[in-house]
Amino acid sequence: FLTTLIGAGQGLFLALFGAELAGAADHPGVGRGFLAVGGLVVLALTGLGLVASFFHLGRPERFWRTATMWRTSWLSREVIALPLFMGGALAWTAQQGGLLPASVAVGALTALACLALFVCTAMIYASLRFLQEWASPFTLVNYALLGLASGSTLATALAAFGAPVLLPAFATLAMGATLAGGISRALSLRRNARLKPHSTLQSAIGIRHPQIRQRRGDQRERAHQV
Fold first, then answer.
1. Which residues neighbour 178 within 8 Å (Cβ) at sequence distance 6 or greater?
2. How far apart are CA 175 and CA 149, in angstroms?
3. What is the three-state SS of the chain?
């Protein structure tokens, strides 16, 4: 839930900010009201993702400690990047009633926080060298592309109701990101299929016999004897 919701929120924000840079705020068929509504959806998605993150904490009341190891832990860096992105998205949404230059500046900083969050979240998995399937640049590429695909698809749905003039651009972005994500994922699966394990069952437990198997019947018998 965390990666899906927050990734979609990130992709949606990038799509909305791209529309603002393209002049959508001044277009009579769009306006800042549409961007503000989209910003609220971004905040809702990231907020729900943040709530979901508490369910995998053993001691939720100590969540603040997860940010204390930012020098070495990608999880800690994610914990820092997420509030920065959410704060920027909130400021950008509030700026939709203000001046355009300020909104663009806030949006640019928020976009940087968004990209940093993509990197931090993906590297939590890509940094696990003992899992060869994850320890690959494809992990970062897949997560970013699929997040952009989800967010731009949502932007397309929002545009269908509130800003039809943006529908072609958002739909093209959604299809392009989805296609790119599919290609990247296919290449990742192709790479994973060619991987060879660094260890075997024999090397893991220190027994060189070519055939190793566990017999549950023997375990039950021993337990009964004890």
1. 149, 153
2. 7
3. CHHHHHHHHHHHHHHHHHHHHCCHHHCCCCHHHHHHHHHHHHHHHHHHHHHHHHHHCCCHHHHHHHHCCCCCCHHHHHHHHHHHHHHHHHHHHHHHHCCHHHHHHHHHHHHHHHHHHHHHHHHHHHCCCCCCCCCCHHHHHHHHHHHHHHHHHHHHHHHHHHCHHHHHHHHHHHHHHHHHHHHHHHHHHHHHHCCCCCCCHHHHHCCCCCCCCCCHHHHHHHHHHC
217 burial class (0-12, 13-18, 19+ CB within 10 angstroms)?
A: exposed
10-residue mean pLDDT series, the chain (226 residues): 93 94 80 89 94 74 71 88 94 78 85 96 90 91 95 96 91 97 96 83 77 67 54
Alpha carbon distance 215, 212 (integer Å): 10
Asked if 88 and 109 touch (Cβ cutoff 8 Å), the reply is yes
For residue 137, give every residue at least 6 positions away whose Cβ sits within 8 Å of its Cβ, in sequence order, or none.
Answer: 126
Residue from 117, 135, 137 nearest 127 by CA: 135
Q: Is the pTM of this model over 0.85?
A: no
